[in-house]
Amino acid sequence: MNMNILEEVFFGNRIMDYLIALLTLLLSLLFVKVFIRALIKRLKKLAKKTTALFDDFLVTILEKIGLPALYISCFYVSAKVLKLPSGADSLINALEMVVITFFAARIIVMIAGWGINIYLAKKNQDPTLVRSLDGMLLAIKFLIWALAIIILLDNLGYKVSTLIAGLGIGGIAVAIAAQALLKDFFSYFSIVFDHPFKIGDFIIIGDFMGTVEYIGIKTTRIRSLGGEQLIFSNTDLTDSRVRNYKLMEKRRVLFRLGVTYQASLSQLKEIPRIIEHIIKNTQDTAFDRAHFFSYGDFSLIFEVVYFVLSPDYNKYMDIQQEINFAIKEQFEKRSIDFAYPTQTVYLHKA
């Protein structure tokens, strides 16, 4: 009698079939919950003992993607035990395709995010790069999910070729209309990845100079020495010759000074030694040369070259000031006069 009850048919399936489906569901859920979860915990402990990052990432994928996917698969497998109406079976297959596409897209997104995080770790978490790559990751996520939806619709039997063709033509039209914007956009990525300058760098572009304050997708903003903000399109910057003083390890300094023609030959020969002694005794400098350069219109000109062992502009000015004071002091002790524009008029009485 009991066996006859199990053979009773409801909605195309025996009660025995329903019991088998339920048992299959419970056993598969138990297997995932006990054995698979225990395996993932074990793998997580092993991954923490290693210095490699990739194994930690794989464990994360198993925990966040693999485990939920297995739970959903339990319901799918148990449902397949039963004989379902064609409409319900098609619905389950469609849901299966949706789930597979969803988890596949999530895995690709996680891989992209992991790759960007590894790249940032190598770049010491540069704030400018973090903000830039966060924006790029959003664009990558959008493209991945858009592609996943197109693939899903194609697998579900929808004609997406017409849609793709329309998007392609529309994309070309938008690209032509927004050509300048796209040029700035790609120049932005060139600045981000090539690092010609970063926020806080002092740069010179043509006749303009200042400190970089902001690097955006379309424009870069620079605070000039006068205090006003200069705004450049990214294309202007990548197409220009940019001088970055932040990357300068030392500063070459060339200056000239003139003494009067009344200076004696012995004084002229002494001047290069005086300047060399002053610079060599000034901290954070490296002397290069000092020479009697030329005969000027109203002065005897000396040319001096030395290096400031720092890129800091204020420090360079402090050192130059110290050198100037010392030269003035030494010239006064030796009665050497600096030249300035003068004219001597000789009167001849006939």
What would your notes on this structure say?
The strands form three sheets. A five-stranded antiparallel sheet has the order 6-5-4-3-7. Strands 8-10-9 form a three-stranded antiparallel sheet. It is elongated, with a radius of gyration of 38 Å. The longest helix has 37 residues, at 86-122. The mean pLDDT is 80. The protein is an alpha+beta fold. The chain starts with a helix and ends in a 17-residue tail after the last helix. Helix 3 runs antiparallel to helix 4 (86-122) and helix 4 packs antiparallel against helix 5 (127-155). It has ten helices and ten strands. It has three domains: 2-157, no CATH class; 188-247, SH3 type barrels, CATH 2.30.30.60; 251-333, 2-Layer Sandwich (Alpha-Beta Plaits). It has helices at 2-6, 15-48, 54-80, 86-122, 127-155, 161-177, 179-194, 234-238, 265-280, 313-333, and strands at 9-10, 13-14, 202-205, 208-215, 219-224, 229-233, 242-244, 251-259, 285-295, 300-308.
Query: What's the average pLDDT?
Result: 80
The number of helical runs is 10
- The Rg value, from CA coordinates, equals 38 Å
- Walk across the major sheet and give the strand order: 6-5-4-3-7
Strand elements, count? 10
N-to-C SSE string, H for helix and E for strand: HEEHHHHHHEEEEHEEHEEH
